[in-house]
Amino acid sequence: MAAARVLLLLSGRSESPSFAQSVCGLLGAGPGLGPWPTHCGWKRGRLVLSDRQFPGASARLPLQRPPFCPFAALDQQLRAPGAELPRNRGVDLGVAVLLQSSDQSVLLTRRTRTLSVSPNLWVPPGGHVELDEELLDGGLRELREESGLQLPQGQFSWVPLGLWESAYPPRLSWGLPKYHHIVLYLLVVSRESQQQLQARIQPNPSEVSAFMWLGPDIAAVVAATEDGTEAPRHLPRELPHSIPTVELGEDGRVRPLALPTSTLLWTTPTTAPTTEEGNERVSTGTKFALRLWLRHLGR
């Protein structure tokens, strides 16, 4: 088995969750949607999680999963031996950076439609944390690789926001999960304005097809939409009908795009068919991160 990147402290014992186990479930998550307060520490390139305080814990963060989490569903099912789930893997570790400008807007990027995992979703820059890489370093590296932004030392501050249990495919109706991550969302607050940051953005066309900046008003409406419901969403009257966006053309050049605000309010039902996999929308984990960001701003 590859080196475990996520460890759990359960009843005083350290263990690595297997790929098929729900981390939220192992930490005592109930039938509700959460989030569940979780104590976190960083030890030798591993994220350590526990439902109790422990020596070396550096933060207490909310942990949440989507209402249609396949690992939660699998916990409730009797699976026959030989189920098509990896046996020699644990839970991987990811990091995502919610970059906030000095004028309080955050950067979201749209993943390219050709990606094999989560295509066409609006998310913050992020990805795997490499071995022997610190969490912040991993987040800043992903930010640089996807957006071209390299933040000058001493020109930003940061704070961990929360943890998200992520699976792909995200629903059992799309097939058994092939990827299982705990994603740590980091808020990185730049001293530069949105305009200054945008002037330096050079999106990586292999991963990013567009980017935008969201202010608190629109972010609050997006964050309030609930995936896993059938309820239709209507655009509040006070919101603009479109949002300024920058899109990459097939020739690699950037161009302005007026993205309909309603696109960001798209929700998917619990039993969404596979035909909805590539629909453009904000990811469920990103909505969770936006709620945490707005709460942080309220402080």
Description:
The protein is of the alpha+beta class. About 15% of the residues lie in helices and about 30% in strands. The protein has helices at about 25, 70-75, 135-145, 195-200, 215-225, 285-299; strands spanning about 5-10, 15, 35-45, 45-50, 60-65, 90-100, 105-110, 120-125, 125-130, 155-170, 180-190, 210-215, 240-250, 255-260, 280. The strands form 2 sheets. Strands 2-1-4-3-5-10-11-6-9 form a 9-stranded mixed beta sheet, with helices on both faces. Strand 13 and strand 14 (about 255-260) form a beta hairpin. The longest helix is centred in the C-terminal third of the chain and has 15 residues, at about 285-299. The protein is globular. The mean pLDDT is about 90.
State the gist of this model.
The protein is an alpha+beta fold and 299 residues long.
Shape: globular
- Rg for CA atoms: 19 Å
Outline the biggest β-sheet. Answer: 9 strands, mixed
- Helix/strand structural class: alpha+beta
